[in-house]
Specification:
CATH architecture of the domain at 21-125: Orthogonal Bundle
Organism: Sulfitobacter brevis
Distance between the termini: 36 Å
Order of helices and strands: HHHEHHEEHH
CATH superfamily of the domain at 21-125: Winged helix-like DNA-binding domain superfamily/Winged helix DNA-binding domain
Domain HTH marR-type: 21-153
Strand order of the largest sheet: 1-3-2
Pfam families: MarR_2
GO molecular function: DNA binding; DNA-binding transcription factor activity
InterPro entries: HTH_MarR-typ, WH-like_DNA-bd_sf, WH_DNA-bd_sf
């Protein structure tokens, strides 16, 4: 791939003209694929799938989230998430509770065992995250994350 090509600006430009190395969705998918691969062995050792890992990760930051919101944050289809949560509940890593305001909605919480499992996985996730930014200074990293947030605002379908 030729990495010296100018970054395209024309919306009508075809992928072949643009090149995969300049197509942001392709690059983001490759990055996430490599990130997931970097933590795969530890996930397997803990008996976790990618949707389960993502769920535990989100719950470590937003415990007690509604299932429909968890699906968005974990980037998992609701049917896949349901199976992942069933397995996590069966293993004692999460618990579900009916929402106090809307009895039709369910909230998900980490159990102590779930938090311990997440804490065992986190160092590997953190190492993979650090590896992504190796050789990138703080200003570049801040600018990159700000750009990603702008892209998220441009394409999001939810208020979060």
């Amino acid at each position: 791939m030729n990495e010296n090509k100018a970054v395209p600006t024309a919306a009508s430009q075809r992928l072949a003209e643009m090149g995969l190395e300049n197509f942001a969705p392709y690059l983001m998918n490759r990055i996430m694929g490599r990130y997931n691969a970097a933590v795969q062995s530890e996930m397997a050792e803990l008996g976790l799938t990618t949707p389960q890992m993502r769920s535990l990760s989100v719950l470590s930051a937003i415990d007690g989230i509604l299932i429909r919101e968890l699906a968005v944050y974990a980037v998992v289809q609701q049917s896949t998430l349901s199976r992942a949560l069933d397995a996590l509940a069966r293993d004692g890593l999460i618990r579900r509770e009916t929402d106090e305001v809307d009895s039709r909605a369910t909230r998900v919480f980490l159990t102590d065992a779930g938090r311990e499992t997440y804490e065992r996985l986190w160092p590997h996730m953190s190492d993979a995250y650090a590896a992504m930014f190796r050789g990138i200074d703080d200003e570049q990293k801040k600018a990159f994350i700000a750009t990603l947030k702008t892209i998220m605002r441009n394409i999001r379908k939810h208020d979060f």
